[in-house]
Amino acid sequence: MKWWPSFGSGWLLRPSQGLIYDRQLVILSLSLMAIGLVMVSSASIAEGINLGDDPFYFVKRHGAFLLICLMLASLMLQVPMARWQQFNTGFLVLAIVLLLVVLVVGREINGSQRWLPLGPLNVQPAEIAKLALFTFLAGYLVRRQDEVRGQWKGFLKPLAVMGLMSVLLLKQPDLGSVVVLFVTTLGMLFLAGARLSQFLSLVGLGAGLLTFLILSAPYRIRRVTSFLNPWEDPFGSGYQLTQSLMAFGRGGWFGEGLGNSIQKLEYLPEAHTDFVFAILGEELGFTGVLLVLLLQAWLAFKALHIGQKVLLGGRQYEGYLAMGIGIWFSFQTVVNVGAASGMLPTKGLTLPLVSYGGSSLLVITTAVCILVRIDFEWRRDHMQARQREAI
Question: pTM for the full model?
Answer without folding.
Answer: 0.89
